[in-house]
């Protein structure tokens, strides 16, 4: 993900927060989103970029790579 794409994604997250109160829907226009998921979404975007960068710099052949939340599983081929 490029820097520009990251900025667009963060702006989208920070500017698209809606909530309901007394059966009316409001758009939050000040402050950060009240959703507890917003920091998680931003952290996942950052970590995805870091993972991609780290994987490309590895000097090993990855046969399998899987990331789920904060767990990473991978299998690599080891030359003997």
Description:
By secondary structure, the chain is α+β, with helices and mostly antiparallel strands. It has one domain (3-77). Helix content is 40%, strand content 29%. The chain is built from two helices and four strands. The protein has helices at 3-14, 38-57; strands at residues 18-21, 24-27, 61-68, 71-77. It has a two-stranded antiparallel sheet. Helix 1 (3-14) runs antiparallel to helix 2 (38-57). The relative contact order is 0.12. The model has no long low-confidence stretch (mean pLDDT 80).
List the helices and strands and how they pair.
Elements lengths: L2 H12 L3 E4 L2 E4 L10 H20 L3 E8 L2 E7 L3
Antiparallel strand pairs: 1-2, 3-4
Helix pairs in contact: 1-2
Most strands sheet: 2 strands, antiparallel
Mean pLDDT: 80
Weakly predicted, low-confidence segments: none
Order of strands in the sheet with the most strands? 1-2
Shape: elongated
C-alpha Rg (nearest Å): 18 Å
Number of helices: 2
Keywords:
80 residues, alpha+beta, two-stranded antiparallel sheet
Task: Describe, in short, the structure shown.
Helices cover 40% and strands 29% of the residues.
């Amino acid at each position: 993900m490029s820097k520009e794409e990251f900025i667009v994604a963060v702006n989208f997250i920070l500017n698209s927060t809606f909530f309901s109160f007394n059966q009316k829907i409001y758009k939050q226009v000040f402050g950060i989103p009240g959703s507890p998921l917003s920091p998680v979404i931003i952290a996942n975007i950052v970590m995805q970029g870091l993972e991609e960068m780290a994987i490309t710099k590895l000097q090993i052949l990855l046969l399998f790579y899987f990331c789920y939340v904060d767990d990473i599983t991978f299998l690599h081929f080891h030359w003997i």
